[in-house]
Specification:
alpha/beta, binds adenosine-5'-triphosphate, four-stranded antiparallel beta sheet, 10 helices, Rossmann fold, binds magnesium ion, 243 residues
Length: 243
């Protein structure tokens, strides 16, 4: 497995947010991490990317233990984290936002410009927005830019935290299709989503977190068909998707 998380515990001060979760992500897969508000999805990504430390348990990437590494080291090893809330730089242009995504790589200027161009072929709409400042982009455009910037790190594993949040249904579809394409092009994806129905359509497998524990897991098709999943997590999403 490219990513192996074992018995992971994470704390915010005295509060234990993850009580020992285990999950695997294989090379080339899209694996989704689902669950309600506060379940521990973002915390899981933050521990993997080194933003917060492991309190117990292990995270290993390509056979290498990530515990104790800082975020810069984790990025340099090939794990890019696109956090919740599209944190792009509002005062910088689209192009400069993208260039900053390559910071951890020590690539030459020419190499970075080549990679910007390559990333823009995956996000054609961003090409027309190259010179625009971040804050002037729409929500969907900012989300695309955040993902594109993550790709500028040339990751083997991309951690995406709720890329569909707050976007209109058509834009969400576009974002999901782009994520599927990124995976087809060879980047492994761990996708955090509250919209289980959407995520299960592009993921091969999924884990459902409930208050810091894995409550359900399995392949996406099985989860989509499962009564337990339907009752607890898919009900409203299915109605919205069919509306
Ligand atoms: N900085 C923090 N300090 C203290 N507690 C926190 C902090 N961040 C998260 N928590 C707590 O940890 C738990 C897990 O939070 P987390 O953000 O991982 O949930 P989530 O599944 O990403 O939720 P959401 O869908 O709302 O983004 C929650 O109980 C939350 O209140
Ligand atoms: Mg979250």
């Amino acid at each position: 497995m490219l990513l192996e998380v074992r018995d992971l515990v994470a704390r915010y001060g005295a509060v234990e947010a993850l009580h020992g979760i285990s999950l695997d992500v294989g090379e080339g897969e899209i694996v989704s991490l689902l669950g309600a508000n506060g379940a521990g999805k973002s915390t899981t990504l933050k521990v993997i990317s080194g933003v917060i430390p492991t309190a117990a348990g292990t995270v290993s990437f390509d056979g290498r233990a990530l515990g104790g590494l800082n975020p810069e080291d984790v990025v340099a090893l090939g794990v890019a984290h696109v956090p919740e809330g599209r944190r792009i730089f509002p005062g910088l242009t689209t192009l400069d936002n993208l260039r900053l995504g390559a910071t951890a790589r020590r690539a030459s200027r020419a190499e970075i410009e080549r990679d910007v161009d390559e990333v823009l072929t995956i996000f054609p709409k961003l090409r027309g927005l190259s010179g625009k400042l971040g804050w002037t982009l729409s929500g969907g455009e900012q989300q695309m830019l955040a993902i594109a910037r993550g790709l500028m790190a040339k990751p083997r594993l991309l951690l995406l935290d709720e890329p569909s949040l707050g976007l209109a249904p058509l834009v969400v579809k576009d974002v999901m299709e782009t994520i599927a394409r990124i995976a087809r092009d060879g980047t492994t994806v761990l996708l955090v989503e509250q919209n289980a129905h959407l995520a299960l359509q592009i993921a091969s497998r999924a884990y459902v977190l409930e208050t810091g524990r894995v409550a359900l897991s399995g392949d996406a098709a099985t989860l989509l068909a499962s009564e337990e999943m339907r009752a607890a997590y898919l009900g409203s999403a299915v109605r919205v998707a069919q509306a």
